[in-house]
Automatic annotation (TrEMBL):
GO biological process: fatty acid metabolic process; menaquinone biosynthetic process
Family according to the record: Belongs to the ATP-dependent AMP-binding enzyme family. MenE subfamily.
Any one GO molecular function term: ATP binding
Enzyme class, spelled out: ligase
Protein species of origin: Listeria welshimeri serovar 6b (strain ATCC 35897 / DSM 20650 / CCUG 15529 / CIP 8149 / NCTC 11857 / SLCC 5334 / V8)
Lineage: superkingdom: Bacteria
NCBIfam families, sorted: menE (TIGR01923), PRK03640.1 (NF002966)
Protein name stated in the entry: 2-succinylbenzoate--CoA ligase
Lineage of the species this protein comes from: Bacteria, Bacillati, Bacillota, Bacilli, Bacillales
Reaction(s) catalysed (UniProt annotation): 2-succinylbenzoate + ATP + CoA = 2-succinylbenzoyl-CoA + AMP + diphosphate
Pathway, per record: Quinol/quinone metabolism; 1,4-dihydroxy-2-naphthoate biosynthesis; 1,4-dihydroxy-2-naphthoate from chorismate: step 5/7; Quinol/quinone metabolism; menaquinone biosynthesis
CDD domains xref list: OSB_CoA_lg
Length: 469
């Protein structure tokens, strides 16, 4: 099915409405479109054409925002590179994806061998580009490599249909008002950030783009009345809660939480402060959230990720794995037929997560299947232990992983970031009070920081590797 070019259609519908707010400067959809067309002409002059695989290595800034749209206008396929990766990790993705060209922010050029720097591109002579007026929704729009929390990254294919249905599914659940805008402090090279950009064009709402997550500045924006929605992961939410007591401006109607469940303590704080927290569940493979709590159920289903968005479906396999079906789900992995085949069973996508549906059909996510610790035949869920450990105020962050053990097969080990008043004996006392003996960590390891992906997810595999060396 062909659909009109989203940006061009949005300009025809609402040219004077605000599209982007970056570093205090507002730009309309009309102004953004003009800037995008100029950039597309410079990319075209550099030989970039429809269907070519073009890698983009940038930051959360205006230039990267414009380039994402410019590449779409030309019909190129964008490989989004995570700017926190090493040069070696990036080189693997460039080779695996068979990239034609790399466009790179000047400050990141040391992470690649060759490419077009932003300043070089801006100095390029304009050539009238061949822009797409329509696109087939089955066309590949973007490629994102999995964050690598479970092992070697795979290139997730995202079509225009995937992005379209993600945006439509979200708005059918969260609704849309004339006051809406979306604060984007998550990376736009990650699906959580890119999906905000796609929704902005489809809904006709502004993106408030932030280069970094600065909780003081984010709090000011949430109190300004200009923002209705923000996407956060648990670590961001916890930092925001420490910034101030109370709620935000009444115009803030959705604090959308992804990237893993929040602790009961955090959820109760949000409830007490009347912060409109909405939990969700999604993946790179589902083009962002695919299971989300309806706002009206946010407080009476604490701990749940919600129900599958319209028109997606969710079910639980016999072994507890969460299975999904719907039009926002990836058609597969780039140049990896084996991984694609392994990811689906009878048309259902295998998430690799374990969970259950309650009597009302609400999904509760328990654990990554690969993170489950099986000790002496008992299933141990790391998040259960982590929630107990974080109840001790001297612990700032924690990650629990399994360590190979000759007697039990595997035992839990806790990695903690702590403050100066931390006492190990006190923490063990809390664990003994709240956990069965086999769930109590056999070792507490104090670290300066936990390894994380660009989206803020803890990389448990990096911690597990410490036990295999």
């Amino acid at each position: 099915m062909d659909m009109t070019n989203w940006l061009q259609k949005r300009v025809r519908l609402s040219p004077k409405e605000t599209a982007l707010v970056f570093e205090g400067k507002e730009e309309t959809f009309e102004e953004i479109n003009q800037a995008v067309e100029i950039l597309a002409g410079k990319l075209f002059a550099r030989g970039i054409r429809k269907d070519q695989m073009i890698a983009l290595l940038g930051k959360n800034d205006r230039m990267t925002f414009l380039l994402i749209h410019a590449l779409q206008q030309l019909g190129a396929v964008t490989l989004f590179l995570n700017n926190r990766l090493t040069k070696k990790e990036i080189a693997f993705q460039l080779m695996n994806a068979e990239v034609k060209e790399v466009i790179v922010a000047d400050s990141l050029e040391d992470k690649i061998t060759t490419g077009i720097r932003y300043t070089e591109l801006q100095e390029t002579e304009y050539e009238k580009p061949e822009l797409l007026e329509t696109w087939d929704l089955t066309r590949v729009s973007s490629i994102m490599y999995t964050s690598g929390t479970t092992g070697k990254p795979k290139g997730v294919i995202q079509t225009y249909e995937n992005h379209w249905w993600s945006a439509v599914s979200s708005v059918l659940n969260l609704g849309l008002t004339e006051k809406d805008s979306w604060l984007c402090a998550v990376p736009i090279f990650h699906i959580s950030g890119l999906s905000i950009m796609m929704r902005s064009i489809i809904y006709g709402i502004p993106v408030y783009l932030e280069e970094h997550f600065d909780e003081a500045k984010i709090t000011q924006l949430l109190e300004s009345g200009h923002v209705s929605t923000i996407s956060v992961v648990t670590s961001m939410l916890e930092r925001l809660l420490k910034m101030k007591e109370g709620s935000y401006h009444p115009n803030v109607r959705t604090v959308l939480l992804g990237g893993g469940p929040a602790s009961k303590t955090v959820l109760e704080i949000c409830k007490q402060r009347d912060i409109p927290l909405v939990q969700s569940f999604g993946m790179t493979e589902t083009a962002s959230q695919i299971v989300t709590l309806p706002p009206k159920d946010a407080l009476n289903k604490i701990g749940s990720s919600g129900k599958a968005l319209f028109p997606a479906e969710v079910k639980i396999a016999d072994d507890g794995e969460i299975l999904l079906k719907g039009p926002s789900i990836t058609p597969g992995y780039l140049n990896n037929e084996e991984a694609t085949n392994a990811a689906f069973t009878d048309g259902w996508f295998k998430t690799g997560d374990i969970g259950y549906l309650d009597d009302d059909g609400f999904l509760f996510v328990l654990e990554r299947r690969s993170d489950l610790i099986i000790s002496g035949g008992e299933n141990i869920y790391p998040t259960e232990i982590e929630h107990v450990i974080t109840s001790y105020g001297a612990v700032k962050e924690v990650a629990v992983v399994g360590k190979p053990d000759d007697k039990w097969g595997s035992v839990p080990v806790a990695y903690v970031v702590v403050d100066e008043v931390f006492k190990e004996a006190e923490l063990f006392g809390i664990c003994e009070t709240n956990l069965a003996s086999y769930k109590i960590p056999k070792q507490i390891v104090i670290v300066d920081k936990l390894p994380k992906t660009a989206s803020g997810k803890i990389q448990r595999n990096k911690l597990k590797e410490r036990h295999s060396k």
